[in-house]
Design goal:
The protein has 534 residues and is of the alpha/beta class. It has 23 helices and 10 strands. The strands form 2 sheets. The protein has a 5-stranded parallel sheet with strand order 2-1-3-4-5, sandwiched between helices. The protein has a 5-stranded mixed sheet with strand order 7-8-6-9-10, with helices on both faces.
Length: 534
């Protein structure tokens, strides 16, 4: 075992020499690593040699032993101190008990007494070393287990099992540095049904998670972990608007994953929250956004806050959680799925009700859930009752088949209404973008990013909606609009090509000519000549 290091300090070199020679240092488990003749020199050597024990005289020039002890206690609290004193200094030295000196010994030094003192000191040092080793072992174990502890904590967060009061405590205990002020959650779903030949679906999902950590987690301050077969990413945001840029980053990743890895990845982005204790809300939204891939497609990011109508952030009532599957199906608007879920709901309704009173109460709770769902989605449930005047009174009287047919009809109708609202909002978004193009097409820096920034939506969502509504990408639409306007200017004015280029947003006349020729098949000058001669 490594021996404990000793530094000897005395202004008399002969005393140091005698001590070194008369003590069996090796046998006692110590080794002398240096000596000094005053306290100042001793401090320099302590810094350099890092001894375990300092044996010092009191009376020394420049800095006496008591002052040296004070400095050691302040700056090197792990060092043990033994003080030598003359008889006339002994009472004075004993008064300095606050210095936490290990032993006071009278000069001249008795080798046997000093050896006994060192034996006792070695026992103390051995215990301290063992304690340090235990602490180090525990720290190593804790650090090794820390990633698992952190992941378990994050799972507890998204499941809503951590209170706001305890959140900060766990952040400190698990060394998590996420100060916000805003947070969000993304769920990455890797399809098991579209896997490259010879690739294991689980291995592909693990590879996707690795790339998320390598690519996205280095761009955004975040924590990445697995949960229920998906990869989750909890992000820290400097502003609420930053979620738009994050959505675009996720969208680029999904497209890269398909192009390079052959993985069909859909990223669902939840709503922003201002407290990590409420991240469950963002997670629920992210999971809901992933389910919209049946409407908006895979290999892309879907931000739940950008879908229309924008659902109000309300907490489900206890009686509404039972209807979650039906409401989700209504949102997606798939007729067959809605009808199937309604049948399941009716079966559960009849199997769970033990008495007529229980059945009637469950029916009224179901009607109330429909009213709340419609209110949260800016619909009036009274407009979809199919002629029923008092639903709370009439619906409980329906038999099973009538109730099933009624619920299917109402639910499908609500799904259509929501789909129409989404389409209406999409059309309005596209119209706003087209108006912006008409107003600002002459600006050279007008781009997809500019439009999305003005409209407050992500590039991925806007591009998807614009292509769906117009049949062409936004950049193609902008270019065509500029070229059509340029063609009109060529025929109606005598301006030079470079002047027209500037008027339609092109600073480079050569590039303008290249784009124009690509659009019309001829250069601007030939286009003018052809149409002038007609």
């Amino acid at each position: 075992m490594e021996k404990y290091k000793v530094l000897l300090v005395d202004d008399e070199a002969e005393v140091i020499e005698v001590i070194e020679q008369r003590i069996q240092w090796d046998d006692l488990g110590f080794t002398v690593v240096g000596n000094a003749t005053n306290g100042v020199k001793a401090l320099e050597l302590v810094e350099k040699l890092q001894p375990d024990v300092v044996i010092t005289d009191i009376k020394m020039p420049y800095m006496d032993g008591l002052e040296l002890s004070r400095r050691l206690n302040r700056d090197f609290q792990n060092i043990h101190i033994i003080i030598f004193t003359g008889f006339d200094e002994f009472e004075y030295a004993k008064e300095a008990v606050h210095l936490e000196v290990e032993e006071y010994m009278l000069k001249p030094i008795n080798a046997t007494e000093l050896s006994d003192c060192l034996k006792r000191l070695k026992d103390t040092l051995d215990r301290e070393r063992e304690e340090k080793l235990n602490v180090t072992r525990l720290e190593n174990y804790f650090n090794a287990a820390l990633p698992v502890l952190q992941n378990n904590f994050f799972v507890s967060l998204i499941e809503g099992r951590v209170t706001e009061e305890n959140c900060g405590k766990f952040f400190a205990a698990y060394q998590i540095d996420m100060k916000g002020p805003y947070y969000g959650c993304a769920v990455f779903h890797t399809s098991e049904h579209h896997v490259p030949d010879g690739m294991n679906p689980l291995l592909l999902a693990m590879s996707v998670e690795h790339e998320i950590k390598e690519r996205l987690a280095t761009e955004w301050k975040s924590r990445v972990f697995s949960y229920l077969g998906n990869t989750l990413m909890l992000i820290e945001l400097s502003s609420e608007d930053a979620i738009v840029q994050f959505t675009d980053s996720c969208d680029r990743f999904c497209k890269w994953a398909y192009r390079v890895m052959g993985a069909v990845v859909t990223a669902g982005i939840g709503r922003v929250c201002d407290n990590m204790a409420n991240i469950k809300t963002s997670y629920d939204g992210a999971r809901e956004a992933v389910s919209y891939r049946v409407l908006y497609g895979t290999k892309r990011a879907i931000n739940i806050a950008e879908l229309a109508p924008k659902e109000q952030e309300t907490t489900l009532q206890p009686e509404d959680t039972r209807m979650h599957d039906l409401f989700k199906a209504i949102h997606l608007g798939l007729k067959e799925e809605i009808e199937k879920v309604v049948v399941n709901e009716i079966e559960k309704l009849h199997s769970n009700a033990q008495t007529v009173s229980q059945y009637n109460l469950a029916i009224m709770e179901m009607v109330g859930a429909f009213y709340r769902f419609c209110a949260n989605n800016f619909l009036d449930f009274n407009d979809h009752l199919h002629g029923i005047q008092n639903p709370y009174e009439t619906i409980p009287q329906m038999d099973e088949s009538t109730l099933t047919a009624w619920m299917q009809g109402v639910s499908v109708e609500l799904g259509e209404q929501l789909k129409n609202a989404r389409n209406s909002t999409s059309r309005r978004l596209v119209t706003d973008a087209q108006n912006l193009v008409r107003e600002r097409y002459m600006e050279p820096d007008l781009s997809l990013d500019t439009i999305c920034s003005v409209l407050g939506v992500s590039n991925s969502y806007f591009s998807s909606v614009f292509k769906k509504e117009t049949g062409k990408a936004f950049i193609t639409y902008l270019t065509d609009y500029r070229m059509d306007h340029a063609a009109t200017l060529i025929l109606e004015t005598n301006e030079k090509s470079y002047q027209i280029a500037e008027r339609v947003g092109y600073l480079d006349a050569n590039y303008f000519s290249y784009v124009f020729k690509k659009r019309f098949g001829v250069s601007p000058s030939k286009y003018r000549a052809q149409h002038t001669n007609q």
